[in-house]
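Data deposition worksheet. Section B asks for the primary sequence of the deposited chain exactly as it was used as input, without tags or linkers unless they were present during the calculation. Section C holds the resulting structure in token form. Section D is free text for depositor observations; keep each observation to a single sentence. Incomplete worksheets are returned to the depositor.
Section A, Depositor: J.P.
Section B:
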Amino acid sequence: MLRHLALAAAFAALTAAGPALADEDAAAKAVEAAKQYSGTTITVVAEAGLQALLDTQYSGPEWEKLTGIKVKVVELPFEEIYTKTILEHQAGTGGYDTLLVSPAWLADVVSNGAVEPLDPYIEKYGVKAEFDDVNPAFKDWMIYNGKTYGLVVDGDVLVTYYRKDLFDDAENKTAFKAKYGYDLAPPKSYKEFGDIACFLTEKYQPKLYGAGVINTGYTHFFFSERFRNHGGKFFDEATMKATVNSEAGLKALTEMVEQNKCMSPGIETWGFAENLSALNSGEIAMTISWPPLGRWTQGVNIDDKALSWVPATKVKDKIGYAVNPGGHPQLASGFLSAVSPDSKNKDAAYLYAQWMHSKSQSLKNVMRPVGLRDPYRLSHYDSPEYQALWPTAKDYLVVLKEGASQGLADISFIETFKYQDAMARAVNAAIGGEDPKTALDNMAAEWDQITEQVGVDKQREAYKVWAAKPSAYRQ
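Section C:
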């Protein structure tokens, strides 16, 4: 009888604790656990510029107030974050505690031993149920070869932006269908993207051009997306010879070059800023770019002085959002928060990462003007607060969710930077006038050299790990 009474009491206690456990919050758990490290300092790596302002203006001071832990921010340009992370680890000084890692670098930082496996910390401090709230494509980012090495803090996906007023214009719709045989609507293929760009340019130039794109700085993202939507694979897995110069590669690169002819004069040298300016000023009818444009075209989040460079919008309430042509947009860059294996404050470093990644804290971050954090949780897309930021925010969030769910991960194997750089130079060469086939053959030859330098067998294993992810190849 006593045994039965004891079991009944234990069951009652577990039942009573059920709601509390269900409501457990990763942010609150991180704060409570971190208080034991009050008075210490953690050094956090942040991308220089708007991104770092999230840590310096908001998260760092808030974390110190909540936990007593000071946050020292090291700002690094994007192109230096990976190299300095590796160099710092090789020096073994423990100069960084909480790291910033782009998913493309994961194979490299893991193979170099430059990141701490996080599974023991998640088991100790985490709330695993919160991982169910992460869009599956972004959840894939966190894991390499079965181990968790980072927590998502920024979910990037390329988006198609288009002028609803021009696409809905009755005269445009009639004329377009008469010429091309299908309805004027957000493009479902890259051929349609080119058709629409040419049609609108022919009608409205020089006042307005049918499309504008980014042709400098980030071209490997745009080629990589088109290449895979055309069915391309990066390597022959048996030989590890590059296949970027395949029929799919030639089709993708030729389209990019040819479609530039229907865009604004000087398009060949446009970067992110030029493209944003043209969209906000009403000079282009369509583009493909990162999520912040969704807010900035509506004049949302640009009242912070750090965003004074963002051009005033003339297209508020005129911009629509769509999943990119092909249906599988690039998950271009994004960031994970990770822990240095050389940190002298690993638990405190991890707890800051868990707090930033958590449901409650991350929702604040993706709505703030600085930081350039973009939604990655299902609760972000469904947030009434986010949906109320502007009249069509709900439509925007639907596109981000759908696009990311079917998105294509950045390449991530050994020496990823070198492969990306070779890809970008090949694309830029073709945009500058070189024969696309020649540019692709040169890229393939350079990729083969890099693979030989890494070691064919070593690279094959890293490639297999990446290629096994659902977001590597969607077809």
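Section D:
The CA atoms of residues 41 and 70 lie 5 Å apart.
DSSP finds 22 helices and 14 strands in the chain.
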